[in-house]
Structures are given as structure tokens and as C-alpha cells.
């Protein structure tokens, strides 16, 4: 593991009731909005396309490199539409540099995290959609920190563009030089910041130079089960993958592990997931953190298998990454294997998530929590 402190950060555990809005950024706007913004600066509208080509196409954000823009125009346009949104505070790396986690400070001091993961055939970035999280899941470091605020569309997108640029510059040894996958599984509940997440998906998948040109099928949106928002996402007719953080097949336990279950029960969440699968034709991922002596019992595996049998879904078992001082711990491997065996015996496709990042506070919120504590 390597650790690099980049800049000092000042923060407080107190969460002010109102924070200043993030500065407007190119990625907050669609193509028409960018042209209007450039015109309002007294510039010709086609300059918006040039700026977008630099940011999304060439992954360049330094004004000095935008030599096709006249110097006077360049300074005015970039100052207005390319403000600094993310300041790296701390970076950790492991797996020979193929996994990198970055803690960012936003304009108001809020902290968020994102993780870049390189494989021989792909590069994936896990991004945050909120600073903190309001879902209050007790085994999650982010959930225990509470919600600070929603991220803007551009703050979400800029995480991806930043790491796309790093990838293109060869930051991940032995991996492709193009970022190809995005998972909304970092800090926050994406569907609780619905409009900005939806707009961020548009920026990430719109063809260059209007967007980053990623495939919708290579984007995964995670949720703890906000049922109305799942139906709303289905109505968007996108091809993104839905991941439902279930963590328990029975309401009694899920009420404790995922408090939003007190509003929408397991059956309602799975019915909404079914509706999403029918609308998109895409298999839903059921995320299940394996917690020792809490949700890893054989009878719960059997119940989950019965619930999911015949559905267009697969289970992704997640070895819990314990947070310091937490009473929650990961299930033993023998228990994990038996849980997976029972699911497969019920005809449910089951995988076990790659356990990258344990030595770099890999669970969402751990790095931010450590920074606040220090």
C-alpha cells in the first residue's frame, strides 16, 4: 500500500443546514445550455463545442492546453465553465497500483471518495453521488456518517473525467488505457439524488464532444431500494444496470440492516427490480454483504434462493469490509462458500465480489471518516 497526502483539509463533523451551491460547470449543462452560456459571455457559440471537445474528448482541463481558443476568450470561458470542483486530499494505492482510492475535498469542504480499479481487460471507476449518506445502514461507514449534501451533476461527472484522464495517461500498469465502466456504488444513495444522477448518466454516455461516450450498458446504478425511484428509472428506458443492495431476504433483519426497508419491504423492492428487468431486458444485480452471524445463515441463503428463483437477477455476494471499531465482521470463507452453493442449487446465478481495497480503507466512507477523525 502507498499513501500520499496531497493537501490539508479542514472539516467539521457538524453539518450546516445550508451550504453554498457548487459553481456552475460545463458538465452541469447539456449542449444547448453550453452554447447559451458561452453566448452570454459574448463569445461565439461554437466555442462551447471546442471547450467540450477538450474536456470530454481529450480529457484536458488546463486552459493553457486549449490553444484553439483565442487567449482572451480562453481565460473568460474556462473561468466561467471549468471551475475546480474536486481537490485531491489523499490518495491510496494497492494491487501493484491497479487499485487507487482518492479522497476529494469539494468547494465547501465536504469530503467524497472514488475508486479506480484496473483489470487486464477493463478499467472501472466507482464514484460517489452524495457527500455522506442518509440511509443509515449500521454496517456502512458512509451511512453512519450521515448525509452532508447531494453532489451536483458536474461533481459526479468530474470524478469520472478525472480518472478517465489518469487512465489515458497510463496510470494503471498492465491495464487498458481507456476507462470503460462506471459504478454508482461510492458514497451516497444515487436514487436519492435522482435528477443529478440521471443527468450525469447522460453526460457520461452522450457521444463526444457532448459527453464521454461510454456505453449505457457499462454503467451500474446501485440503490438500497427506493421503490418509486426504481420505477422512475425504468421509465427512462436507459440500458444501465440496476444493483439492489438487499443484504437480507427477510423483513425483520432487513429493517435493521437497511432502515429504508421499514418504508418499502423486501417483496416491494424485488417487484420493482422485476419491473426494471422487464422494461430494460437487463438482469438485476442483488448485492448481499456477508456479515458474520448476522445474515449468513444457511436458512437465509435458502430463503433468498426461493425469492429469486425464476427472476432475471443474479446475486453478488460481498465480503464485508469491516470499519474500525465496528461490531460487524465479514463471514468466514467456508460460510460464504456454503451460502453461494445453496443459492446456485436453487438455480440462482451467484458471484463473489473481488475483495480489492481492504488495505486502503476500501469500504465507502472509511477514508473520509479517518480524515475527519484525524
Automatic annotation (TrEMBL):
<feature type="binding site">
    <location>
        <position position="140"/>
    </location>
    <ligand>
        <name>[4Fe-4S] cluster</name>
    </ligand>
</feature>
<dbReference type="InterPro" id="IPR013785">
    <property type="entry name" value="Aldolase_TIM"/>
</dbReference>
<dbReference type="GO" id="GO:0030488">
    <property type="term" value="P:tRNA methylation"/>
</dbReference>
<dbReference type="GO" id="GO:0070040">
    <property type="term" value="F:rRNA (adenine(2503)-C2-)-methyltransferase activity"/>
</dbReference>
<feature type="binding site">
    <location>
        <position position="321"/>
    </location>
    <ligand>
        <name>S-adenosyl-L-methionine</name>
    </ligand>
</feature>
<dbReference type="InterPro" id="IPR027492">
    <property type="entry name" value="RNA_MTrfase_RlmN"/>
</dbReference>
<keyword id="KW-0489">Methyltransferase</keyword>
<keyword id="KW-0411">Iron-sulfur</keyword>
<dbReference type="GO" id="GO:0051539">
    <property type="term" value="F:4 iron, 4 sulfur cluster binding"/>
</dbReference>
<dbReference type="GO" id="GO:0070475">
    <property type="term" value="P:rRNA base methylation"/>
</dbReference>
<keyword id="KW-0808">Transferase</keyword>
<feature type="binding site">
    <location>
        <begin position="245"/>
        <end position="247"/>
    </location>
    <ligand>
        <name>S-adenosyl-L-methionine</name>
    </ligand>
</feature>
<feature type="binding site">
    <location>
        <position position="137"/>
    </location>
    <ligand>
        <name>[4Fe-4S] cluster</name>
    </ligand>
</feature>
<keyword id="KW-0479">Metal-binding</keyword>
<dbReference type="GO" id="GO:0005737">
    <property type="term" value="C:cytoplasm"/>
</dbReference>
<dbReference type="GO" id="GO:0002935">
    <property type="term" value="F:tRNA (adenine(37)-C2)-methyltransferase activity"/>
</dbReference>
<feature type="binding site">
    <location>
        <position position="222"/>
    </location>
    <ligand>
        <name>S-adenosyl-L-methionine</name>
    </ligand>
</feature>
<keyword id="KW-0408">Iron</keyword>
<dbReference type="Pfam" id="PF04055">
    <property type="entry name" value="Radical_SAM"/>
</dbReference>
<dbReference type="InterPro" id="IPR004383">
    <property type="entry name" value="rRNA_lsu_MTrfase_RlmN/Cfr"/>
</dbReference>
<feature type="domain" description="Radical SAM core">
    <location>
        <begin position="119"/>
        <end position="358"/>
    </location>
</feature>
<keyword id="KW-0963">Cytoplasm</keyword>
<feature type="active site" description="S-methylcysteine intermediate">
    <location>
        <position position="364"/>
    </location>
</feature>
<dbReference type="GO" id="GO:0046872">
    <property type="term" value="F:metal ion binding"/>
</dbReference>
<keyword id="KW-0698">rRNA processing</keyword>
<feature type="binding site">
    <location>
        <begin position="188"/>
        <end position="189"/>
    </location>
    <ligand>
        <name>S-adenosyl-L-methionine</name>
    </ligand>
</feature>
<dbReference type="InterPro" id="IPR040072">
    <property type="entry name" value="Methyltransferase_A"/>
</dbReference>
<dbReference type="InterPro" id="IPR058240">
    <property type="entry name" value="rSAM_sf"/>
</dbReference>
<feature type="region of interest" description="Disordered">
    <location>
        <begin position="1"/>
        <end position="25"/>
    </location>
</feature>
<comment type="function">
    <text>Specifically methylates position 2 of adenine 2503 in 23S rRNA and position 2 of adenine 37 in tRNAs.</text>
</comment>
<feature type="active site" description="Proton acceptor">
    <location>
        <position position="113"/>
    </location>
</feature>
<comment type="similarity">
    <text>Belongs to the radical SAM superfamily. RlmN family.</text>
</comment>
<keyword id="KW-1015">Disulfide bond</keyword>
<dbReference type="InterPro" id="IPR007197">
    <property type="entry name" value="rSAM"/>
</dbReference>
<keyword id="KW-0004">4Fe-4S</keyword>
<keyword id="KW-0949">S-adenosyl-L-methionine</keyword>
<dbReference type="GO" id="GO:0019843">
    <property type="term" value="F:rRNA binding"/>
</dbReference>
<keyword id="KW-0819">tRNA processing</keyword>
<dbReference type="GO" id="GO:0000049">
    <property type="term" value="F:tRNA binding"/>
</dbReference>
<feature type="binding site">
    <location>
        <position position="133"/>
    </location>
    <ligand>
        <name>[4Fe-4S] cluster</name>
    </ligand>
</feature>
<protein>
    <recommendedName>
        <fullName>Probable dual-specificity RNA methyltransferase RlmN</fullName>
        <ecNumber>2.1.1.192</ecNumber>
    </recommendedName>
</protein>
Amino acid at each position: 500500500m502507498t499513501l500520499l497526502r496531497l493537501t490539508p483539509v479542514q472539516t467539521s463533523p457538524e453539518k450546516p443546514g445550508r451550504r453554498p451551491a457548487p459553481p456552475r460547470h460545463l458538465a452541469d449543462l447539456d449542449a444547448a445550455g453550453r452554447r447559451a452560456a458561452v453566448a452570454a459571455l459574448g463569445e461565439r457559440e461554437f466555442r462551447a463545442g471546442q471547450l467540450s471537445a477538450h474536456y470530454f474528448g481529450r480529457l484536458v482541463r488546463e486552459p493553457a492546453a486549449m490553444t484553439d481558443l483565442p487567449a482572451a476568450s480562453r481565460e473568460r470561458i474556462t473561468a466561467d465553465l471549468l471551475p475546480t470542483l474536486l481537490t485531491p486530499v489523499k490518495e491510496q494505492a494497492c494491487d501493484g497500483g491497479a487499485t487507487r482510492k482518492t479522497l476529494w475535498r469539494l468547494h465547501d469542504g465536504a469530503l467524497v471518495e472514488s475508486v479506480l480499479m484496473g483489470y487486464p481487460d477493463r478499467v472501472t471507476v466507482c464514484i460517489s453521488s452524495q457527500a455522506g449518506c442518509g440511509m443509515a445502514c449500521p454496517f456502512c461507514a458512509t451511512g453512519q456518517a450521515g448525509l452532508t449534501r447531494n453532489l451536483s451533476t458536474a461533481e459526479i461527472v468530474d470524478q469520472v473525467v478525472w480518472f478517465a484522464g489518469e487512465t489515458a495517461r497510463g496510470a494503471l500498469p498492465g491495464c487498458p488505457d481507456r476507462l470503460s465502466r462506471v459504478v454508482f456504488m461510492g458514497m451516497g444513495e444515487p436514487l436519492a439524488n435522482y435528477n443529478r444522477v440521471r443527468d450525469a448518466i447522460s453526460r457520461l454516455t452522450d457521444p463526444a464532444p457532448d459527453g464521454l461516450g461510454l456505453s449505457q450498458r457499462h454503467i451500474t446504478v446501485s440503490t438500497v431500494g427506493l421503490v418509486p425511484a426504481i420505477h422512475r428509472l425504468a421509465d427512462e428506458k436507459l440500458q444501465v444496470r440496476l444493483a439492489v443492495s438487499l443484504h437480507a431476504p427477510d423483513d425483520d433483519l432487513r429493517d435493521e440492516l437497511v432502515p429504508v426497508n421499514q418504508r418499502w419491504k423486501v417483496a416491494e423492492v424485488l417487484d420493482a427490480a422485476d419491473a426494471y428487468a422487464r422494461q430494460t431486458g437487463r438482469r438485476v444485480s442483488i448485492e448481499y454483504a456477508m456479515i458474520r452471524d448476522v445474515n449468513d445463515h444457511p436458512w437465509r441463503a435458502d430463503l433468498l434462493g426461493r425469492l429469486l428463483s425464476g427472476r432475471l437477477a443474479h446475486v453478488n455476494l460481498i465480503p464485508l469490509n469491516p470499519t474500525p471499531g465496528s461490531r460487524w465482521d465479514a463471514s468466514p470463507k467456508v460460510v460464504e462458500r456454503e451460502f453461494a452453493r445453496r443459492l446456485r442449487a436453487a438455480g440462482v446465478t451467484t458471484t463473489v465480489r473481488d475483495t480489492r481495497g481492504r488495505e486502503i480503507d476500501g469500504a465507502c466512507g472509511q477514508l473520509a471518516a479517518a480524515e475527519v477523525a484525524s
